[in-house]
Specification:
Elements: H1 2-18, H2 25-39, E1 42-43, H3 44-49, E2 56-59, E3 62-64, E4 78-87, E5 90-99, H4 105-123, H5 132-144, E6 148-149, E7 155-157, E8 164-168, E9 185-188, E10 191-193, E11 199-201, E12 208-210, E13 216-218, E14 221-224, E15 231-232
């Protein structure tokens, strides 16, 4: 999984460097695809769900699962680069949010909120802690920044497939008291919005947009639970 995580980190960094006004989401997807090919990796969403792109690229009010294509990025956009790779039978998954050109203040605030929530979620993700400690920490941080968690979109276990047990909500679920176990691999991925946080199907069968049209942000890492700080598999 470390090898899959490195492919993802390399792909995200290359895509991030290429984000600029005028580039298309399809061109960014090709960058990731080329890195995957050189590493012998495959797209997780394509393998498991027959997704039409190598990666998921979502812009502004698109929260997740945006389809790469001819859309040109414009200055002020906020683009989410969500990358999942399979390598030698193992999967890893990560996402960053990147402003295009001169960032809007709202986008910067959202990014700060989501990054802080990810850090706070990881800080409590230790062996023996209840699973719902992660969501409690994430939601508290997002709320403190004046934003909303997209409750329909959650983190997950990962390993031989993209989505494995357990579900990892970004808010407190009282009944999720089972302890995190050493060696468990999961993603923590705050997906948040400037508005209510509710999302809807955009109509293409994949993309989810915020219901109120507000901008969203998304940060994610794949990690291994330990007795101390988790081991981040997708860090650059």
């Amino acid at each position: 999984m470390r090898a899959a995580g490195k492919v993802i980190a390399d792909a995200i960094e290359a895509m991030r460097r290429s984000v600029r006004p005028g580039v298309t989401t399809g061109e960014l997807d090709v960058i990731a695809g080329d890195i995957f090919k050189r590493a012998g990796a495959r797209s997780g969403p394509q393998l498991d769900y027959d997704f039409p792109g190598v990666t998921c690229i979502s812009v502004n009010d698109e929260a997740v699962h945006g389809i790469p294509g001819k859309r040109k990025l414009r200055g002020g956009d906020l683009v989410k680069l969500d990358v999942t790779a399979e390598l030698n039978g193992f999967y890893a998954d990560a996402c960053i949010s990147v402003p295009v050109g001169k960032p809007r203040k709202e986008a910067l605030r959202l990014m700060t909120s989501a990054q802080a929530a990810l850090a706070d979620g990881m800080a409590v993700a230790r062996a023996g802690a209840p699973l719902n400690a992660i969501g409690t920490a994430v939601d508290a941080t997002v709320s403190a920044h004046g934003h909303s968690v997209c409750r329909q979109l959650i983190g997950h276990g990962i390993g031989r497939r993209i989505h494995e047990p357990p579900d990892v909500p970004n808010f407190r679920v009282p009944e999720l008291t089972q302890p995190l176990t050493e060696g468990l691999v999961l993603t923590i991925e705050p997906i948040i919005a400037a508005g209510t946080g509710w999302v809807r199907d955009a109509g293409d069968g994949w993309t989810m947009r915020t219901s109120d049209g507000s901008t969203s942000a998304h940060f994610e890492h794949t990690m291994v639970i330990t007795k101390g700080n988790p081991i981040i598999l997708t860090a650059v």
